[in-house]
Amino acid sequence: MSISLNAEARDDLGKGASRRLRRLSGGTPAIVFGGAKNKKPQSITLIHKDLWKASETDGFYSSVITLNVGGKEEPVIVKDLQRHPAKQEIQHVDFLRVTKSNLIHILVPIKFINEASAPSIKIGGGTVSHAQSEVEITCLAANLPEFVTVDMQDVPIGGIVHLSDIQLPKGVTVRALRLGEDHNQAIATIAGAKGN
After folding, report:
1. Rounded to an integer, what is the distance from CA 76 to the centroid of its chain?
2. For a tag site, which of 36, 57, 92, 138 has the least CB within 10 Å?
3. What pTM value is reported for the model?
4. Tens-place pLDDT, residues 96-134
5. CA dist 124 to 117, 151, 155, Å?
6. How does DSSP assign 130-155, residue by residue?
7. What confidence tens digit (pLDDT) does each residue in 160-184 have?
């Protein structure tokens, strides 16, 4: 999926300036950091309605976003996003610059497939319990998947699905598994029907 956002450089910094920006112009303050060692963080302004619309799409938090700042395009990922506790308002975004050669660590959704057709559920009456809905992966920006999948088709009643059961595209690893076998956490189980 391709997501693009237009932004403008911002010189007026601080909490007061950010409040004025949100209140008067409908903008959202953000910062872009990382990338090459000599690149400095850049404060920017995004159009809130465009940012909100993009944030509602699947894959917004796990996609490389093209950020157009004053006619110059930069590939970035969302590192942090702050929402207003009561309003439908994004208050601030932190973007991380990505390059083709640098590894990134990012949370992506786990998509559980074939749950409805799994014999342990459809015939055996089992119920699925998800312990995790996302996982931290490591990959190059070019290999970043929108989500990763776990096939539940052959999981028996009482079966446990672990991080190592996630189907990963080429060039993608689960970060926790790089720490050793004892980090292979359970991400889903199928329990038997009550009374059985």
Report:
1. 12
2. 36
3. 0.73
4. 988 877 888 888 999 999 988 888 888 888 889 999 999
5. 11, 17, 11
6. ES-SEEEEEEEGGG--S-EEEE-TTP
7. 999 999 999 999 999 999 888 889 9
